[in-house]
Amino acid sequence: NAGVMQNPRHLVRRRGQEARLRCSPMKGHSHVYWYRQLPEEGLKFMVYLQKENIIDESGMPKERFSAEFPKEGPSILRIQQVVRGDSAAYFCASSPGLEIYNEQFFGPGTRLTVL
Amino acid sequence: GNSVTQMEGPVTLSEEAFLTINCTYTATGYPSLFWYVQYPGEGLQLLLKATKADDKGSNKGFEATYRKETTSFHLEKGSVQVSDSAVYFCALSSSGGSYIPTFGRGTSLIVHP
Q1: Pairs of CB atoms within 8 A across A/B
Q2: Could you report the per-residue pLDDT of B16-75, keeping only the tens digit for each?
Q3: A56 contacts on B by Cβ (under 8 Å)
């Protein structure tokens, strides 16, 4: 049973370009979460999605950032017109349901570097 | 709202030393509590969890007890190894927080031979 997959593992972009990060949840999981981790900082929640729905995007910047989880295919976190401050590790996690005792299963992360 | 407070790191120990990483929380509702570990260059993975008061979660020699009276979930290990060097995150999930987990800032553990 494959775990959570993220690609690419490393992404380099120049300022002003677009970054597209992909996440395939574990088989049977329909809940996806995106987090950002900056050096020496904790994990910051960005967005929570279920298939075809954004449930909570309270942690995502209002501009330049968007996320989707289509009926078919991976979840996508999209950052338009990247700036140096977007450089971070972005982690995706999935869970089988919304119960509070469910653990989250994390992917290996995408490390974004903006030049 | 929900919050998790962990002791700041890094925590530096010699091999076979006793480890404690403190974690306290505030939560609306009745939370489930988790410890995750992150090895260098990897994502987080669940280390242990507890879902009700006085439960003890344990895994790989690590233990943590859900203390409702002190709102704490301290992580302990009797004898650490070099391979335990990682960042440890305390987290909670509760119905009062819209079920989205709240993570602490993480505590870096460095174990020397």
Answers
A1: 57
A2: 999 999 999 999 878 999 999 999 989 999 999 999 999 999 999 999 999 999 999 999
A3: 98, 100
Q: Backbone phi, then psi, for A19, in 5-degree steps?
A: -115, 135
Residues of A in contact with B103 (CB under 8 A): 42-43, 45
pLDDT, residue B98, reads 65
CA pair distance B45, B47, nearest whole angstrom: 6
Instruction: Kindly state the helix (H) or strand (E) to which residue B47 belongs, with its residue range.
Output: strand B44-50
Query: CB-CB: which of B44, B89, B100 is closest to A45?
Result: B100
- Decide if pLDDT at B109 tops 80: yes
Could you list the beta-strand ranges (E) of chain A: 5-7, 10-13, 19-24, 31-37, 43-50, 53-56, 65-68, 75-79, 88-95, 105-106, 110-114
Q: Which residue among A4, A56, A103 sits closest to B100, beta carbon to beta carbon?
A: A56
Residue A51 has pLDDT above 80, yes or no: yes
